[in-house]
Amino acid sequence: MKVYLQEVSTGKKVKASIEVITKNEMLSKTEETKWQFDWKELAKVEGVFFYKLTLASSPSQIEGLLMLTLIHDEMLFMNNIEVAPHNYGREGRYNFVAGTLIAYACKKSFSLGQGDYLGFLAFESKSNLIELYQKKYGASLAVGQKMFFSPEAAKKLMNKYLSINTK
C-alpha cells in the first residue's frame, strides 16, 4: 500500500506511512501543541486501535491521528480523527491528511468488520462537518449526526488515497 501526502507549497507528492502509534508517542492537548483532542487521555481507553500518519522522511513528526473501535466484534467505528495543527486549512503544510486517514479506516473495516458490517465504517460527525463528509468523502448520513461509509464509498476512498485498486 502506497500512501502519499501533497506538499501545499510545491504541489509535490510526498511519501508517507500509517502505523500503529504507541501510548508513549501520544500527544496532549495543550496551548503549545494546539491539538483538539487529548490523545494521551484517549489512549487510556481499552480495546481501541490508534494509528499515526507520518512522512517517510520524518517519522517522528505526526501529520494526523486516528482512533478506531470494533463495536460488538463486528462494526468498525471511527471515534476520532485529527489533522495535525500545522496542516490546518490553507496555511497547512500537507494536503490529503484527513482523506488518507479515513481511507485507511475504511481499509481496516474490510479486515476487522464482520458479517453485514464488512466494509462499513461508522462515525459521528460534528454538525458543521456533515456536508463536508458527504460531498468531499462520499459518506452517508444515517440519523442525527451519525454517518457511515458504505463498502462502495470506502473502496473509492481507498483507490484515491491509498493507491489500492479495489475494482
Give a brief description.
This protein is of the alpha+beta class and 167 residues long. Helices cover 23% and strands 35% of the residues.
Describe this structure in words.
The protein has about 170 residues and is α+β, with helices and mostly antiparallel strands. It has four helices and nine strands, in the order E-E-H-E-E-E-E-H-E-H-E-E-H. The chain has helices spanning about 40, 95-110, 130-135, 150-160; strands at about 5, 15-20, 50-55, 60-70, 75-85, 95, 120-125, 140-145, 145-150. A nine-stranded mixed β-sheet has the order 6-1-2-3-4-5-7-9-8. Helix 2 (about 95-110) crosses helix 4. The two termini are about 15 Å apart. The mean pLDDT is about 95.
Low-confidence stretches: none
Assign the structural class, choosing from mainly alpha, mainly beta, alpha/beta, alpha+beta, or little secondary structure: alpha+beta
Strand residue content: 25-35%
User: What is the strand tally?
Assistant: 9
Biggest β-sheet strands, sense, barrel: 9 strands, mixed
Radius of gyration: 15 Å
Mean pLDDT: 93
Distance between the termini: 15 Å
Bulk shape: globular
Helix content: 10-25%
| Biggest sheet strand line-up | 6-1-2-3-4-5-7-9-8
* SS summary, helix count: 4
Order of helices and strands: EEHEEEEHEHEEH
Q: Strands, helices and their partners?
A:
Layout: E1 3-7, E2 13-20, H1 39-42, E3 48-55, E4 58-71, E5 75-83, E6 94-95, H2 97-112, E7 121-124, H3 130-137, E8 140-143, E9 146-149, H4 151-161
Parallel strand pairs: 5-7
Antiparallel strand pairs: 1-2, 1-6, 2-3, 3-4, 4-5, 7-9, 8-9
